[in-house]
Amino acid sequence: MSSWDQLRTELDLWQSEGRVATAWWRDDDAVTVTPELETLLGFEQDYNVPLALAVIPASLQDDLVERLVETIDTRVLQHGWAHQNNMPEGRKKQELDDIRDVDAVIADLKQGFAVLSSRFGNRFLPVIVPPWNRISDDVAAALHNIGICGLSTFNARKKPEPYKGVLQVNTHVDVIDWRGTRGFVGEDAALGAMIAHLSARRQGDVDPQEPTGILTHHLVHDAPTTQFLDNLFSMEHSALSWLRIPGVFPWQ
Ligand SMILES: [Zn+2]
């Protein structure tokens, strides 16, 4: 059976239980309009799959602000401050680190929050997407103090609200093979991750309420990645529902 058939089989099980397999889409590292980003905005429009764009505040260009005004459903999340690694050699990359004083990290995030809210208005949702999907506990615990009410990293969440006033909704399917080719991870791996999360939700092994998140990085998409996303977003199944981004973070 192909991976696509396996995905359909999993969705059939959701349907037979009268349940809706909710999913959402996050794309990281946006600062300006590129042909690769236009391709994704085209998918959003053509297939009606709402896009959450994680924007790096310190590098934001005017053209991105102007372009997103023309979109219907694209929402902006905050991708750290400058996507800068603050960890020493030998430790995993992290911008929202535990090396600096927590107040210094929070000051950066506050600055980024101000940039995105003033440039994007209501299109910006107060959700932090930590660069490299990593954030120190102390920083995460302080997010609520500066008006951040959402957090998105990678892997099934342990709790919906791991820090006071902060709703966590993660992604679970990474389409890029970062440790290998840095190209498309392949249909079997991508769909395998999607099926694994859906199946674990259905069986109650992970939080069933957390929508299954697809993670993309438009700047590095090769042709096979783009083709895969085209196939995924154009796939129709009555049990599969792509959430609007305010519905992913429904506190508003
Ligand atoms: Zn990033």
Description:
With 252 residues, this protein is of the alpha/beta class. The chain has a single domain (3-242), classed as Alpha-Beta Barrel (TIM Barrel), CATH 3.20.20.370. It is 37% helix and 15% strand. The protein contains 8 helices and 9 strands. Strands 1, 2, 3, 4, 5, 6, 7, 8 and 9 form a 9-stranded parallel sheet that branches. Strand 7, helix 6 (187-202) and strand 8 (212-216) form a beta-alpha-beta unit. The mean pLDDT is 97. The site of zinc ion has 5 residues, from strand 1.
Main attributes?
252 residues, alpha/beta, TIM Barrel, nine-stranded parallel beta sheet, 15% strand, globular, binds zinc ion
Strand content: 15-25%
The CATH topology is given as TIM Barrel
Would you tell me the structural class of the helices and strands?
A: alpha/beta
Taken together, the total number of domains comes to 1
Query: Looking at the structure, what is the overall shape?
Result: globular
Mean pLDDT across every amino acid position: 97
Tell me the number of strands.
9
Q: Can you say what the CATH homologous superfamily is? A: Glycoside hydrolase/deacetylase
- Count of helix runs: 8
Major sheet attributes: 9 strands, parallel
> What is the CA-CA span between the terminal residues?
42 Å
Write down the CATH class: Alpha Beta
Helix content: 25-40%
Radius of gyration: 18 Å
Q: Architecture in CATH?
A: Alpha-Beta Barrel
Tell me which ligands are bound. zinc ion
Regions with little confidence, pLDDT below 50 for 5+ residues? none
Sequence of secondary-structure elements: HEHEHEHEHEEEHEHEH
